[in-house]
Every structure is written in structure tokens, then in C-alpha cells.
Amino acid sequence: QVQLVESGGGLVQAGGSLRLSCAASANALSINLAGWYRQAPGKQRELVAVITSGGSTNYADSVKGRFTISRDKAKNTVYLQMNSLKPEDTGVYYCNVVGVLGALKNYWGQGTQVTVSS
Description:
By secondary structure, this protein is mainly beta. The protein has no helices and eleven strands. Strands 2, 4, 5, 6, 9, 10 and 11 form a seven-stranded mixed β-sheet that branches. A hairpin with a 3-residue loop joins strand 9 and strand 10. It is globular. The N and C termini lie far apart (40 Å).
């Protein structure tokens, strides 16, 4: 059973930075696609950023130029560097991985809280 362990959330002032990490528990998991989603109170979960196995990335318009998604294949870890944070970035951030470990499956992390104060 693969688990995604997230870390790096917290409380930060507007304009500050945080880096989220998402580590897959099984090194043998072959990651096809990884992404970060977020859910603000009372709102639907939304896609923030994705990265493919080839390293191509895509971002929500609201975070372009401020957030960077990356991955360390050797550590099977995905990162989200968040700069110039705004209060509207507040929410629970979830890591999502589509990968193969015997079969193709979709995995979710437990979520990490990011709070940006004004």
C-alpha cells in the first residue's frame, strides 16, 4: 500500500514563502503524473499545479509566476514552492499522484494546512 506523506504547511504572513513536500512511501512506485490541489473553506477542491513524468508543468492562472512544482525522482518526492503568498492562497493542500506499482492507481495525501495572514 502506497502512502503519500505531506509536510511543510503552516502559518505565514502575506508575501512570505512556504515549501510543501510530498513523499511516496514506496520507492518502487513509478510516478506518471503528480499534482497539488487545494481546498479553501466552503469551496471546491481546485488544481494548483501538475508535473508529468517528463517534467512538463502546468499551473492555475492564480498561482502562475508565484508557485513552482518540481520533483526528485530519486527520492520519489514532489515539491511545491510557494512564493509571494496571498491570503486567498489559504486552504488545505493535497498531493495527488497517478502512478504504477503493479497497477495504475490514483493516490492522495492526507492534506496539509496553509494559512496566509494579511
